[in-house]
Design brief:
Helix 9 links the parallel strand 7 and strand 8. About 6% of the residues have low confidence. By secondary structure, the chain is of the alpha/beta class.
Length: 236
Amino acid sequence: DTNLAAAAQTNLTGNIALGNPQRLIDMDAQGIDYQAINVNAWAYSADRALARDLIKVQNEKISQWCAKYPDRFVGMATLALQHPDLAADQLDEAVRKLGMRGAAIGGSVEGQELSDRKFDPFWAKAEELGVVVFMHPQPAPGTTQNPRLQGRGGLTNTIGNPLETTVFLSHLIFEGTLDRFPGLKICAAHAGGYLPSYSGRSDALCGRGGNNGADCKALKKKPSEYFRSQLYIDTM
């Protein structure tokens, strides 16, 4: 617990030095008008009490730093998704009290898919608040932690991270999360993984006869069509 708390403080003070005007100088030099600031999700193993305290520190500090330059920075909340009801409360406080504009999450939680119905309280709150949820991969079994990705090429990153994004989005589509919460706005890192350029394969599944397209029967749209209304991607 002590190590997690120390890491949280190091992460904040070392990696998000918003008090340093050099960041503003660099932004001006690069033609960047506005930055969204967040801490990458990393503490999903923390128990409820520790998670509550960690998130409180992170969100309050991000909010305070962004408040110094409100015309240049906006904050994204960190959440304890391993405790979905707590995550919903944290998001509500971050948006309504701290003025944050969304949340940053991982693609899975300790091996659990975020399309699982246990996470519905969080998704319901995100929809209610109308904020953007930004997903960035973290180490996860089967994707970034796949033993086949060992060896040269940094494949746990170059392949594993976009694969985690692809799996995350595909589950949200096929398990009906996006249909249950049609007001969700989700931005997926690493250009949406492989799904934006390969969603035609998911559409093809839905067009097949027999039982091949059974997983699509309950969906309100073709898989690719969710990118027209609810799903967004970055360009990295």
